[in-house]
Design a protein that fits this description.
Strand order of the largest sheet: 1-2-5-6
Strand content: 25-35%
Structural class: mainly beta
Radius of gyration: 13 Å
Shape: globular
Number of strands: 6
Distance between the termini: 27 Å
Length: about 80
């Protein structure tokens, strides 16, 4: 299912990804933590953006995107993907 949300003055396309469809590791820009394969999440991109503008978010992180800081700090032990 796909919807449109407004964030930072832009329209963003948001699509849910089921756990069965999540086959790769992703890095969530909201919390800077890994989204492992098999975990349901959302993918979002600016409606006027290109394919490479897509970002995979934890659902909770996308819902809290306005309450989070602009750049979360990565822990020393966090893997870099």
């Amino acid at each position: 299912m796909e919807r449109t949300d407004e964030w930072r003055g832009e329209e963003w396309v948001v699509r849910g990804v089921t756990g069965a469809a999540a086959a790769k590791h992703y890095r969530c820009p909201g919390c800077d933590q890994e989204i492992p394969p098999g975990v349901p999440h959302v993918v979002s991109w600016p409606s006027m953006g290109a394919v490479e503008d897509r970002r995979h978010w934890h659902r909770a992180c996308w819902n809290a995107r306005d309450r989070r800081g602009a750049r979360p700090l990565r822990t020393r032990n966090a893997p870099r993907y």
